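Format notes (please read before filing issues)

Several people have asked whether sequences and structure tokens are stored in separate files. They are not. Every record keeps both together, in the order shown below: the sequence lines, then the token lines. Line labels are part of the format and must not be stripped during preprocessing.
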Amino acid sequence: MKELGKITLRMVKIPLNNGTIEVLATNLPQSEFSTSEISELYRMRWGIETAYETLKSRLQLENFTGTKPCLLLQDIYSTIYVCNLAEDIIRDVERELNEKELHTKHKMAINQMLSIGILKNDLIYIVLETDKEKKSVLFQKLYDDISQNLVPVRPDRHYHRTKGQLAGKYSNTHKRAY
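Then the structure lines:
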């Protein structure tokens, strides 16, 4: 920041569907990006933000099992691998769901938390299996188990969030997720 000296920020007010105003700070100039374009860029970015939330909260990316650099990298790589694999399987199953005509009140989606838990528990057995046929059977069972965990997608549901204890959230000896 010292090298830049100063930066110019632009505050953009975006009205949300519930009537509240969200204020975004950006360095994108108004001459190049209108307020509606900034709003659309922010909406497109939201998928990336939820992916970070999955990595940090659900898979506990910051909860390391060791302190050496090698162990930290191992934790990071394995967590990202599990996250990508879970997302790939979920998208594949949801694509199949969309092709089927389900007669339900709400659109159905795969429960991400349960899917990650199933994958976390079963992946090690698939990786360690040496017989390709057994490995294929185990993976198909994993796929079938994940596809059984459907939850309804209810639009416009919002809950008041309360902040919990932030300090001491993680310890090196109690990693609850993969």
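For reference, the curators noted about this record: The CA atoms of residues 100 and 119 lie 24 Å apart. Strands lie at 10-15, 21-26, 107-110, 150-153.
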